[in-house]
Amino acid sequence: MIDFQTIIDQITAEVTQEKDKGAVASYIPELGKISANKFGIYLIDDQGNGYGAGDSQEQFSIQSISKVLSLTMAFSHLGSDLWKRVGVEPSGDPFNHLSLLEMENGIPRNPLINAGAIVVCDVLVSLLKDPKKEFLAYVQKMANDSTIAYDPKVAASEKATGFRNYAAANLLKSYGNIKNDVDTVLDFYFHNCAIRMSCKQLANTFYIFMNRGKCLQNHEYLNLNQVKRVNAIMLSCGFYDEAGEFGFRVGLPGKSGVGGGIAALLPNNFCVASWSPGLNKKGNSKLGMLALEKLTTQTALSIF
User: Fold this and answer.
1) Residue 102 pLDDT > 90, yes or no?
2) Residue 128: what pLDDT?
3) Beta 195-197 vs 149-150: how paired, if at all?
4) Given strand 149-150, what is the order of strands in its sheet?
5) What does the H/E/C string look like for 103-155?
6) Per-residue pLDDT for 94 more than 80?
7) Most buried pick, 25, 91, 178, 297, via CB within 10 A?
8) How far is CA 148 from the centre of its chain?
9) Looking at beta carbons, which pairs linking 246-253 to residues 24 or more positions away fall under 8 Å?
10) Sign (positive/negative) of CA torsion 27, 97, 233, 192?
11) Pseudo-torsion of CA 30, 35, 36, 40, nearest 10°?
């Protein structure tokens, strides 16, 4: 039996000694206030046992990690019809690039880049009576944690600086792939990105992707066919134009956010979340990627 606690304690001690911790995402002012010295990691195994180290109980803005959760909600409602409006291919571009949208007639390459996530949010705005309230309740139930909430300061900070997202949404609207009011859709999108969680809460939330679509309380969120597809999208698209590098180094499906979080999983084995606000040049957590590479190397557990 693997001693996960000893391994993540050792990894935490090693990565926090790294001199180059990356750069905090200062282009969203509220995120720029967070110290690059923060580091947390939390792992939950297939039996529901949890192992934490560092700042694993401190909440942070999960940012684009929430795109997997909105995708899950939309997919559970629409099924395969969702793929008529968003693709499943890696973009090969940074998360906020717009060039492919015009080339591909307003169909985003995948749901984990900004444009794709905005389309998913538009789908949910059409489906839900109170999107922000209902989506948050969906996430809280998935995590079995009613304390998970939006950070209004981060949402406001994103809205004030999200010019590329406004550009993407209006371009999508021009192709007919946004059905609702652009400001309404983006308000929902910015709030999704502003959800706050700790590593422990994030690992508990992503447990369904490790556990064949069922949360810790055994409630089914996705069927096996759907969870297979979401995990595949995370593997190929979860780290933008560094997805190949993450697959090469870590070997797990996962998703990053510019708040410094990463959620990753090995189906039927474990789910892990890390947090280190310093980012590399691709916008992914520098120490988080290093920590997860060490985890899969030392445990010899990956999908490969």
Assistant:
1) no
2) 98
3) antiparallel
4) 60-61, 195-197, 149-150
5) HCCCCCCCCCCHHHHHHHHHHHHHHCCCHHHHHHHHHHHHHCCCCCEECHHHH
6) no
7) 178
8) 15
9) 246/284, 246/289, 249/289, 249/293, 250/289, 250/292, 250/293, 250/295, 250/296, 250/302, 251/296, 251/302, 251/303, 251/304, 252/292, 252/296, 252/302, 252/303, 253/209, 253/303
10) positive
11) -100
103 pLDDT exceeds 80?
Answer: no
Structure confidence by residue, pLDDT tens digits, 161-200: 999 999 999 999 999 999 999 999 999 999 999 999 999 9
- Helix 163-174 crosses helix 182-193 at what angle (to 10 degrees)? 140
What amino acid is encoded at 287 in this protein? L
* DSSP β-ladder status, 50-54 and 40-45: antiparallel
Residue 285 forms beta bridges with which residues? 279
Interval 259-280 mean pLDDT: 98
Instruction: Give the distance between the most distant pair of CA atoms in the chain.
Output: 55
253-266: pLDDT as tens digits = 999 999 999 999 99
Dump pLDDT digits (tens) for 200-255: 999 999 999 999 999 988 899 999 999 999 999 999 999 988 999 999 999 999 99
Query: Which tokens sit at 97?
Result: 């690039």
Tokens describing residue 56: 């694993």
The confidence score (pLDDT) of residue 40 equals 98
Closest CA to 116 of 135, 133, 131, 101: 101
